[in-house]
Amino acid sequence: MSDPSPSLRRALAAIAIAGALACAILLALAIDSVGGHHRDLIAIFGPLIGGAFIGTGLLAWMRRPENRFGALMVALGFAYCLSGLIVTTQPWPFIAGLALIAVPYALLFHILLAFPTGRIESRGARALAAAAYFVATAGWWLCMVFEDTTRLGVPANPLLISDQPDLFKVLANTRLAIVAALIAALFVVLARRRRRGSMWVYLSGGLVLALYAVWAVLGVLGASTSLQDGLERARVVALALVPFAFLAGLLRSKVAGAAAVSELVVRLGGSRHGSLRDELAEALGDPSLELAYWTPTGWVDASGAPFIVAEGRASTPVENVALLVHDASVADERELVSAVVGAAALALENERLAAELRASVKELRASRARIVKTADAARRAIERDLHDGAQQQLVALALSLRLARTRVERDPAEAGRMLDAATRELQAALQSLRELARGIHPAVLSDHGLGAALEALAARFPFPVEVVSVPEERLPDAVEATAYFVVAEAITNVARYAHANGARVSVEHCGDELTVAVSDDGIGGADPGGGSGLRGLADRVAVLDGSLSVDSPPGRGTTVRAAIPCPPPARGVAPGRGAPRSSSMS
To answer: Alpha-carbon distance 335 to 163, whole Å?
Structure first.
């Protein structure tokens, strides 16, 4: 609850004075009138209804200035006072009151749709409210211009265009049918809502509109005037109860809210009847409540799965711990929400840690599954390369050597040519094996370090690849291999998809972290989750507790950056290595 500003206090005081004057004038008019429509009823209930709605509306407006509910109730009170002008015997005041006679019920329709926040959330509900206002104003005014009111024993109608009783009956019955249909639709909407403190408002307001709907239907069916008159009087009496029902509902909501918080504290301190979500949902009176928890990778639910707030739902953050996603009406009960959050703060933090652990386990399982899948795919690729490359070449070499063996004695010259061809086939097979071995783990990386390996890698691409920085010292084998394959995969993606003129590679060792960055001037728009290459690299970097990020705005190139933990090596020692190694493939 926020305190009203001084200017708002002055405005509300002025409205209160105007409301008191309106009620007093209405009472004076009703007493002074010698006839008029429902003179006795308006003399008794007119000031009561107008004053009660204006008073309770001002109270709600003062307590919650940001909520429109109070303003709607004040508007209903004034509208009812103005509609009470129908008790006068003067034509123009009478017709002004008659023109506004249905507006209070349209406002009540709006109030029930908007309770308790004062806002109508859905498009369908907004359409219902707009239709109610239209039928209560333009729809009724269209009927009025075709009715001579003097036939009913009331003042003349200054807005009369032509007295057309049959046309007026058709228009009035059509309007009443629409009113009944709108009220039925309202009840369908209200039946879906179940909120603490709302019952009394919905029951009292719903009773008024239910009587209005029955009165409308009976009017269409041509029921007796006495029956309709009795229903109209009952409707006025029921309308007088609505503002008091609102006060009762507000008081009950506060008492129930305090009791719910006390019960929540007891349950959280002892044995729970259900999950934390269930306990909070019961305390807030919102069965649709959802909980999300903050982790380094974003919001997750209690199971650790990623969480996204659905459209039309409101949320209340609890520092960097949790997010309460609830019905929009709950946001209006800020004192209750704050009390519930305070009572459940420790439990929410414990749940957050558990959700973060579950999310980490989920990601670990997914990462392991992807690594196994990638390893299987790599083994199949090696098998294919061996079968289609070196194996076929060695089979052909074996056949050539057998043929050469049969020609040695009969045709030494031909045998020599066949042996030369076999030598070339052997060299081709060795080259295939070298390429295959380089793909698995380049020998230059083991023998000469990351810098030489990256230079050799850059030379194999058909566009300029600039290696701008590489640590001079040797790094642990796993770190060097991961950095190498990050660069290799990133540049391969540049060659395949980026349409770039060139690429830059930067590898920097600062403190306890090795940073690898590969950037290009291509078309950008890369999707890190769209393919298995970058995702596999992210898994490979994650094995070393590192992280991989991709920045790829459309039209502005792509930067792949990996951060790998790498403590500085001891002075004079090449980490993870003994003497330099040689390769049989070099």
So the answer is: 58
Can you tell me which residue has the tokens 């790498």? 566
Cβ(489)–Cβ(507) under 8 Å? no
What is the SS3 string spanning 374-426? HHHHHHHHHHHHHHHHHHHHHHHHHHHHHHHHHHCCCCHHHHHHHHHHHHHHH
**Which residue bears the tokens 């652990």?**
357
State yes or no: pLDDT of 133 exceeds 60. yes
Q: Is the peptide bond before 553 cis (omega within 30 degrees of 0)?
A: no
Residues 304-317: tens digit of each pLDDT: 777 887 776 777 77
What's the pTM?
A: 0.52
Nearest to 313 by CA among 342, 279, 288, 338: 288
Q: Which CATH architecture has domain 6-255?
A: Up-down Bundle (1.20)
Which stretches within 270-344 are classed as H helix?
A: 276-284, 334-343
According to CATH, the topology of domain 448-565 is: Heat Shock Protein 90 (3.30.565)
Sheet containing strand 298-300, strands side by side: 298-300, 290-295, 322-326, 314-318
User: What is the pLDDT confidence band of residue 158, given thresholds at 50, 70 and 90?
Assistant: very high
The amino acid present at 572, given as its one-letter code, is G
Give the DSSP H/E element, type plus range, for residue 468.
Answer: strand 465-469
In the chain, where are the structural domains located?
6-255, 362-440, 448-565
SS3 (DSSP) at 531: coil
User: Which range in 12-16, 287-291, 524-528 is most confidently predicted, on average pLDDT?
Assistant: 12-16
Strands (E) located in 511-569: 513-520, 547-551, 559-565
Give tens-digit pLDDT for 282-336: 766 677 778 887 777 677 777 777 788 777 677 777 777 777 787 766 666 666 6
Nearest-angstrom CA–CA distance, 532 and 554: 21
Which tokens belong to 223?
Answer: 């029921």
- Residue-by-residue DSSP string for 314-331: EEEEETTTEEEEE-GGGG
Pick 362-440's CATH classification: 1.20.5, 3.30.230, 1.10.3470, 1.10.287: 1.20.5
What does the pLDDT look like over 427-484, one tens digit per residue? 766 766 666 555 566 677 778 889 888 998 888 888 899 999 999 888 888 888 888 8
- For residues 116, 118, 121, 125, the Cα torsion angle rounded to the nearest 10 degrees is 90
Residues 392 and 395: their CA atoms lie apart, in Å, by 5
Q: Name the DSSP letter for residue 581.
A: P
Does pLDDT of 205 surpass 70?
yes
Give Cα separations from 426 to 213, 403, 420 (angstroms): 97, 15, 10
CA distances from 187 to 99, 124, 258 (A): 26, 13, 30
Task: Say yes or no: do domains 6-255 and 448-565 share a fold.
Answer: no
Q: In the numeric block, which tokens belong to residue 226?
A: 């006495």
Residue bearing tokens 């783990």: 441
Helix, strand, coil: what percent of the chain each, to 5? 65, 10, 25
